[in-house]
Amino acid sequence: MFIKNGEILLARRTNTGFEDANYGLIGGHLAGHETVKQAAMRECHEEIGVSIAAVDLDVIGVEHYVSPTGEGIDFYCKANRWQGEPYARAECDNITWFKLDNLPKTMIPFMRDAIARYLSEQSWFSGFEGNDFKEDSTSSYQNTNLLENTQD
C-alpha cells in the first residue's frame, strides 16, 4: 500500500485476466525463491516504476481470498518510502491517488476490505484457523462497511 496525505495509490488493472478494469493495490505473485518483500519490491518496479528498499516495507496483513476467478493468500505490505514518481507501466492503464474515505466503485472487493482492515486494525491475519492468527468469521465480500463512500 502506498499511502500519503490521506490518500492511497490504486492501479486500474488491464490485460491480466484477473479483475481487469477494476482498481486494486499494486502487487502480483512470488517468482522463484523470492521473499514477500522481494516480490513486493519487484512488482512495484514493474507495475509503477518505483524503487523500494526492503527496510522501507512493512508486512501489514495476510488474508485468504476467494474471488469469482480463484482463491489464494495475499500478503499486504505498506511502503514507508520509495524512489521515483509512480506511473502506469505494466498490467495497469491508470494509477490514481484516491482519498481513503472515497474509494472508486470499480474496485476489487477483497482489496477494498484489506484497506478497511488496515485503517481499523493496522495489521491483520484473516481467513485462517488456529491460535496463531486472529480469527475472522466474515467474508471479505461482506466486510466492506468501513468504506461505504465511493466515487465513480
Short descriptors:
single chain; 4-stranded antiparallel sheet
Could you explain how this protein is built, in words?
It is built from 2 helices and 9 strands, in the order E-E-E-H-E-E-E-E-H-E-E. The strands form 3 sheets. Strands 1, 2, 3 and 6 form a 4-stranded antiparallel beta sheet that branches. A 3-stranded mixed beta sheet has the order 5-4-8, sandwiched between helices. The longest helix is centred in the first third of the chain and has 13 residues. The C terminus is likely disordered. The protein is of the alpha/beta class. The protein starts with a strand and ends with a strand. A hairpin with a 2-residue loop joins strand 4 and strand 5. The protein is 17% helix and 31% strand.
Mean pLDDT: 83
Number of helices: 2
Structural class: alpha/beta
The separation of the N and C termini measures: 21 Å
- What's the alpha carbon Rg, rounded to whole Å? 15 Å
**Low-pLDDT regions:** 130-152
Q: Say how many strands there are.
A: 9
- Beta-strand percentage? 25-35%
What letter string, H or E per element, gives the SSE order?
Answer: EEEHEEEEHEE
Helix content: 10-25%
Principal-axis shape: globular
Largest sheet: 4 strands, antiparallel
